[in-house]
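As the next step, I needed to go through one protein, both as residues and as discrete backbone shape codes, included below for the reader:
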Amino acid sequence: DVYKRQELIQGIKGIATTHEVNLLVQGLGSVFNTSFTFKPEITNYEEHLKYTDIESFKKFRANLQDNGVRITARGTWMLSTSHTSVDIEKTLNAVEGAIKSL
């Protein structure tokens, strides 16, 4: 649902801002992407390779996975109607822990 998507995306953005981390969150619908970059938008794979901090992302993704949150190797997140508010809260806690671990 749109509310859960917004809660998750805004939560991720808020955590990144609080910890002064350049984490771009972009996408449409229930599928979105995260990249460690100063750019306001990444539009293709070439930009992804050139402008993102891939090593920080790998650490971030591994830490998320260690805490029960699975995103793709390219940083794609998928939210479904089966995700609850509790799932969103747990995910945001994992995001905060992953960002702190960087």
Notes: DSSP finds four helices and three strands in the chain. Strands lie at 23-28, 31-36, 76-78. Residues 2-18 form the longest helix (17 residues).
